[in-house]
Amino acid sequence: MSVKLKIEGAGDIERALADFARGTAKGVGRRAMKKTLQPVAQLAEGMSGGKFKVAVTSKLSQRQARGARRDRGRSKLVMYVGPVQEDGSHSPHAHLFEFGTAPRFHAKSGKAVGAMPAQPFLRPAWDASTELMLATLRRETWKEIEKTVERAKRKAARAGK
Prior knowledge:
Radius of gyration: 20 Å
Structural class: mainly alpha
Mean pLDDT: 86
Largest sheet: 2 strands, antiparallel
Shape: elongated
Number of strands: 4
Order of helices and strands: HHEHEHEEH
């Protein structure tokens, strides 16, 4: 699932981020987005009935990364919310749980191995959190900008001594 957000009316945030180097601004955005998306991940994990650990990350499996090539770019910042295994790698069967399966049969023997009904947990968690996310993103971005400015001031003071 891919959802793109375009925030308008946040010119003050954009101007504040423009004062930073690109890498610093991306770090600010990444930290703010991670904090904003964490409640979605926690809700999705609870809705999965404990079957999946859900994380906020910028990493994808090689196969997922091939499909998400448009998400990359110098001026783009992308974070993903999704199920992971205990070691942090992607969870290859989560989509079967989320979307379900049609009746399945073995190719050679013809034996029926059943169907799995859809048990969505990510989409309902996302839908339940959308109202709160934009306000949280704005608040968290300002907090991160303020922290970054303070760090820069401390660094400049150390360099001046």
